[in-house]
Design brief:
With 382 residues, the protein is mainly beta. The chain has three domains: 3-20 and 159-302, 3-Layer(bba) Sandwich (Glucose Oxidase, domain 1); 59-128, OB fold (Dihydrolipoamide Acetyltransferase, E2P) (Beta Barrel), CATH 2.40.50; 326-379, SH3 type barrels (Roll), CATH 2.30.30. The chain is built from six helices and 28 strands. α5 links the parallel β18 and β19. The two termini are 33 Å apart.
Length: 382
């Protein structure tokens, strides 16, 4: 084993959650300021667009002074359009007056966009390409529980939840299809059928590179399997992944590995839970951060379509955590230590570092009490 497989084998990965009933909430944020299309209490589908913005188009610099062989100060007189005008690729952008009306020289735009500026100093014209729409989907089928003005929203759902140890590929949605009859049966190419287009395919043991290629070929959106060979991962990606955040790979499919690298069986509890939801739509995200950050791939299967709730539901950062809940610290200075939640302060607390954050008060096994940022602990199964 080498590369990413070795990194995962030595990474700190206990506490992976597999729950038949769990409350999940996800922040759906735009990369720039935009328009939020939903309100608190709205029922949303996973594919529904909840926020929209427009990214500025690409900038195209055109040196007309050189192109027309005129001084920079004369370029403005040659441009046949004004700042703010739209221009199409192939359309005349500038034309010289010529000599006695003859020998005119003209330049046709190579880009479509809007004329943004004309420089009398450099003789350059700036053409701004068409704005690029950016849309953010709900990802989860559930209810909007918080709106972040001009940024996005938080969507909450109740349903079954499975965390993986490693994954690649981003967010996708599809219906669960079981491809293997037992949690120890490897997922191979012959298990992938044409009618699995658009499906989240669930295998048993190790998934092979041939199976992944076959799944991409039939149009499946995701694969969930117990294990993966390190060499197969390198083969399907075409490069060594390294230790980093995954999720942006252009693989054509998202992949969630539930147990680890190599020949390994899926935990019966995980396999049975997924099998119980065959035919239901699941939200899948293969994004993973192996070390700091503890970002894990996931499969979320909402219990049912969310119903509108105009009672303005609320959500807490301590969802699923209660007094006495067993937790583990996942960042320094308490990294790896196990304890129980002693209190759930609602107000921001000042930490030793001087920063302020929402915290849990935790009593560690040694008896020591500490205020630990909520982002720095994981809930252990009782």
């Amino acid at each position: 084993m080498s590369g990413i497989g070795e990194a995962v084998a030595h990474a700190y990965t206990p506490g992976l959650k597999v729950a038949a009933a769990w409350t999940v909430h996800r922040r759906r944020l735009l990369p720039i300021t935009g328009e939020v299309l939903v309100h608190i209490g709205d029922a949303v589908h996973g594919r529904q667009v909840v926020a929209r913005a427009s990214m500025p188009g690409d900038v195209h610099l055109v040196n007309l002074a050189n192109a027309l062989s005129v001084p920079p100060a004369d370029v403005r007189e040659c441009v046949v359009k004004k700042v703010g005008d739209h221009i199409e690729a192939g359309e005349v952008l500038a034309r010289t007056k010529g000599l006695f009306g003859l020998f005119k020289n003209e330049f046709r735009s190579k880009a479509t966009g809007t004329i943004e500026a004309i420089s009398d100093v450099t003789g350059q014209v700036i053409i701004r390409g068409p704005a690029m729409p950016v849309e953010v989907a709900a990802y989860l089928t559930g209810t909007v529980v918080e709106v972040l003005p001009n940024e996005g929203c938080i969507v909450q759902t109740q349903g079954s939840f499975v965390q993986g140890i490693f994954g690649v590929g981003g967010e996708t949605l599809g219906r669960v299809r079981m491809a293997c009859a037992a949690p120890g049966r490897p997922l191979d190419a012959e298990d992938i059928r044409p009618d699995m287009a658009g499906a989240v395919i669930v295998g048993g043991g190790r998934v092979t590179a041939d199976a992944i290629r076959r799944a991409v070929g039939v149009g499946a959106v995701a694969i969930v399997a117990a294990g993966l060979d390190d060499q197969d991962l390198r083969e399907i990606l075409g490069y060594d992944l390294g230790v980093a955040i995954t999720g942006s790979e252009e693989l054509g499919i998202s992949l969630v590995i539930t147990e680890g690298f190599g020949d390994i069986d899926m935990a019966p509890r995980t396999f049975d839970l997924l099998a119980a939801h065959e035919g239901k739509e699941a939200s899948v995200n293969g994004a993973t951060q192996i070390r700091a950050g503890v970002l894990r791939p996931e499969v979320v299967i909402p219990a049912q379509s969310a119903a509108p709730n105009r009672a303005s539901p609320t959500i807490t950062a301590a969802e699923g955590v209660f007094i006495g809940a067993p937790v583990r610290a996942i960042r320094d200075p308490y990294f790896g230590r196990i304890g129980k939640v002693a209190a759930l302060p609602t107000e921001l607390q000042t930490l030793e570092s001087g920063g302020r954050a929402r915290v849990f008060e935790v009593v560690f096994e040694s008896g020591e009490r500490a205020l630990v940022p909520r982002a720095n602990v994981e809930l252990l199964e009782s």
